[in-house]
Amino acid sequence: MKHLLMGLGLLAAIFLLTSCQSQGGAQDIDDIRAKVAQLEKEVQGLKAQLAQSGVGLRIAYINAEKVFQDYKKTGEAVEKFRAEAEKKQNEIKALQDKFKKGLISEDDFQRQAMRLQQELQQLDLQLTSEIQSEMIKVIEQIAKERGYHLVTQRKDVVLYADPKIIEDITYDVLKILNQGQ
After folding, report:
1. 14, 55, 135, 162: least buried by Cβ within 10 Å?
2. CATH architecture of structural domain 59-178
3. What is the spatial distance between Cα 128 and Cα 154, in angstroms, rounded to a whole number?
4. CA geometry: angle at 120 spanning 139 and 63, to 5°?
5. Rounded to two decimals, what is the model's pTM?
6. Per DSSP, what are the bridge partners of residue 27?
7. Which of 133, 128, 113 is nearest to 80 (CA)?
8. What is the mean pLDDT of each run of 10 residues along the chain (181 residues)?
């Protein structure tokens, strides 16, 4: 948090440096120094408020891909999807045979094949959504129990995490999910 506040102060100082230029391009150094001093006081005030409140921003992250990959129900869902995909593929082959024999028109073949593909896509979305919902429920549970203000995905945001500032809860989520909550 200290580094965040200092970073914000430096960004503000840079902004001031660029905004305090006169039309001729010369900088009023005394004005900049006064504004930087004012910003430093404001940062110190914010630090004091944060220290007095006793509350810091608590952040955790998960490796969602790892959770999804290692969750037992993901394997079950993949097997269910494969079995259904195989059935749909057999149905499409049967439709192809009917089309080749002239029993159905090309439009009927395309319409029915498209319907089978859409059913398969719908199943994929449903299975994925169910797993994601369970993951989110466990993440929320852990966040509330441990007092986290924010839980994010490592892949999307976190390039480095100081373990004193942000905690990886990937394995905690996996443990609860695989135990059936």
Report:
1. 162
2. 2-Layer Sandwich (3.30)
3. 19
4. 25
5. 0.59
6. 21
7. 128
8. 45 44 50 68 62 66 88 93 94 92 91 94 93 91 88 71 74 86 51
